[in-house]
Specification:
By secondary structure, the protein is α/β, with parallel strands linked by helices. It is 38% helix and 21% strand.
Length: 364
């Protein structure tokens, strides 16, 4: 059965939209298909900051493509530095933990945290081309870790905090990562998820890992291995709040995420910087119709590509205010998400159909 219903948007909504009509969408699509180099050159110039411009918009050798050949940019700079003058005091992240703790980080504050942590990584000898595993709860420091890595050109791979030690080990080994960023634990349905314990189990078979930096989130007791394990807060406290973003090739590897493994061994999917950043910044406007005063919430975990694209890189590159929530949608009650929407005055809410169906069963 095919759905035939049409739900046109209100005229006022359409008049303010970035893509205000089906005709406008079709024209956008036509330009992208008929004149792809001209189209994507225009979008990249308009939506992304570049240290150096490209020689070619793309080079296509099926099945491979390179975007913005010869250009240099930096994802962290695009998400932070370019907003400081106009949006420094604007909320970048509104965080709510499952226990009810709340924090707001402005763009200026997030920039300072990222610079401090990037300097921590530099002081430990990490640089462009290195790989880092991020195995953390849904807290602002996970975003800090991603953007600090991106600032220096360290390719990050976020591992979902619900994954086992075995899954974590496989990803560390496959990437040959020498750096792991984790936490003592996180909260899920009122229980502590002990991430450091799982990391220790995985690391027993990963002798190439030199540093494990541990965020103190839950305050639970953890084993700290001398010479390898370091506390995040101790390192960050002594770091400088200034760290220039590295101009990186548009094709520099930004991150690797692994497939689910349902059809075999999980495969690492590489995303490079320039093309990815252009895409997610543009689609924040085309798909979500993001405006300057919106409060935007994507419920995806950053361990998945949706969380990377539409909780971190896309909205922050576009200058959005993003809500970030640590826990389960139904804890301590089924209306937890709706409480967060009301409390933080969320105007754009992005979640999965499965979650909506589950919540609909609870009624009003």
């Amino acid at each position: 059965m095919q759905e035939q219903s049409v739900y046109p948007p209100p005229a006022g909504f359409a008049s303010r939209a970035h893509v205000g009509s089906l005709e406008a969408y079709r024209e956008l699509y036509r330009r992208a298909v008929e004149h792809p180099e001209e189209f994507w050159s225009e979008m990249a110039e308009r939506e992304v900051h570049w240290f150096e411009k490209w020689h070619h918009v793309f080079e296509w050798h099926p099945p491979f493509v390179k975007w913005f050949v010869g250009a240099k940019t930096n994802a962290s700079f695009n998400c932070l530095d370019r907003h400081l003058e106009a949006r420094g005091a604007k909320a970048a992240i509104i965080f709510e933990g499952e226990p009810g703790d709340q924090r707001v980080l402005t763009y200026a504050e997030l920039h300072e945290h990222v610079c401090r942590f990037a300097n921590v990584l530099k002081s430990r000898g990490y640089k462009a081309g290195d790989r880092a595993i991020i195995y953390m709860p849904m807290v602002p420091e996970a975003v800090v870790a991603m953007l600090a890595c991106a600032r220096l050109g360290i390719t990050h791979s976020v591992v979902f905090g619900g994954f086992s030690a075995e899954a974590l080990k496989a990803r560390i080994q496959d990437l040959d990562a020498h750096l792991v960023l984790t936490a003592d634990g996180g909260w899920r349905r009122g229980r502590e998820v002990r991430l450091k314990d799982a990391a220790d189990e995985a690391l027993a078979d990963c002798p190439n890992v030199r540093d494990v930096i541990v965020l103190k989130r839950t305050g639970g007791a953890v084993q700290m291995r001398e010479g390898r394990d370091l506390w995040w807060h101790e390192l960050e406290a002594g770091a400088s709040p200034e760290c220039a973003a590295e101009p990186l090739d548009a094709e520099h590897p930004l991150f690797v995420l692994y497939t689910s493994g349902t059809t075999g061994k999980p495969k690492g999917i590489l995303h490079t910087t320039g093309g990815y950043l252009t895409y997610v910044t543009c689609t924040m406007k085309w798909v979500f119709d993001l405006k300057e005063d919106d409060v935007y919430w994507c419920t995806a975990d950053i361990g998945w590509v949706t969380g990377h694209s539409y909780l971190v890189y896309g909205p922050l590159s576009a200058g959005a205010t993003c809500v970030m929530y640590e826990g389960a949608p139904d804890y301590p009650a089924w209306d937890r998400w709706w409480e967060i929407v009301a409390r933080h005055k969320v105007t754009i809410f992005y979640t999965s159909p499965t979650a909506i169906r589950a919540l609909l069963k609870q009624g009003d």
